[in-house]
């Protein structure tokens, strides 16, 4: 069992930065591929970024490449999403997700655990 708790969301002006954190509990955390998803009002939950269990490989949606960076600290059981050059279209609830496996996938139904989400609002 893995429990995930996100933090770090908030209100920021366009062009600003935020860093999201996702703290995980559970013994097998380091065996899980971890990802961030986001969901805007009236839209589906979309993949944002993912990282393999070792942290050696990362993956990004085209819309955030070059602006967002995902990382993990397995010693602290925490993953991060550094978001720079934020745009109003980045406004959404951001969710952390864990998948028991070595590969990062973009489909929500292949993740085993989810956090409760944290709101990110970018004003123009």
Can you walk me through this structure?
- With 124 residues, the chain is mostly beta strands.
- Helix content is 0%, strand content 52%.
- It contains no helices and eleven strands.
- The chain has strands at residues 3-7, 10-13, 18-25, 32-39, 45-51, 58-60, 68-73, 78-83, 92-100, 113-114, 118-123.
- Strands 2, 4, 5, 6, 9, 10 and 11 form a seven-stranded mixed β-sheet that branches. A four-stranded antiparallel β-sheet has the order 1-3-8-7, with no helix packed on it.
How would you concisely characterize the structure shown here?
The chain has strands at 3-7, 10-13, 18-25, 32-39, 45-51, 58-60, 68-73, 78-83, 92-100, 113-114, 118-123.
The profile of the biggest β sheet is: 7 strands, mixed
Radius of gyration: 13 Å
| Gap from first CA to last CA | 40 Å
Class derived from helix and strand content: mainly beta
Q: Give the oligomeric state of the chains in this entry, treating copies of one chain as homo and distinct chains as hetero.
A: single chain
What percentage of the residues does DSSP assign to strands (E)?
A: over 45%
Report low-confidence residues grouped into runs of 5 or more. none
Q: What best-fitting shape do the alpha-carbon axes yield? A: globular
């Amino acid at each position: 069992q893995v429990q995930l708790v996100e933090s770090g969301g908030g209100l920021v002006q366009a062009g600003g930065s935020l860093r999201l954190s996702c703290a995980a509990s559970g013994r097998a955390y380091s065996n899980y591929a971890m990802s961030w998803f986001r969901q805007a009002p009236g839209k589906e939950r979309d993949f944002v970024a993912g990282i393999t269990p070792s942290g050696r490989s990362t993956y990004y949606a085209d819309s955030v490449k070059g602006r967002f960076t995902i990382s993990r600290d397995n010693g602290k059981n925490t993953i991060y999403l550094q978001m720079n050059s934020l745009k109003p279209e980045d406004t959404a609830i951001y969710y952390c997700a864990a998948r028991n496996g070595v590969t990062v996938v973009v489909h929500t139904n292949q993740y085993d655990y989810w956090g409760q989400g944290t709101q990110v609002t970018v004003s123009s």
